[in-house]
Design a protein that fits this description.
Elements lengths: L4 H6 L9 E3 L2 H12 L18 E4 L4 E6 L2 E2 L7 E2 L1
Antiparallel strand pairs: 1-2, 2-3, 3-4, 3-5
């Protein structure tokens, strides 16, 4: 189930306070490719083991926040720099 519109209206990047929006399929494909190649790391330095199937993209398009089990993970160290 996608993140509700009501939640999207109040969520912002914890680092810059920029709004976030659902990540487009193209970004999800790029992250899946990087995960499969073993190259994807979050900003905390941990390797991402599972390709994200859903996430939120910061307004400037530079940071991705994963959504796990319908819950946005809005932690800087869990985000992925694009």
């Amino acid at each position: 189930m996608p993140v509700s519109q009501e939640l999207l209206e109040i969520l912002v990047c914890p680092e810059t306070q920029q709004p976030v929006a659902p990540a487009p399929d193209e970004v999800l494909r790029q992250l899946a490719d990087a995960t499969a190649a073993g190259e994807l790391r979050n900003r905390g330095g941990s390797r991402v083991e599972r390709a994200p199937s859903e996430g939120l993209l910061r307004e400037d398009g530079r940071v991705f926040y994963p959504v796990e089990e319908d819950i946005p993970v809005m932690l800087i160290e869990e985000s992925i720099e694009l």
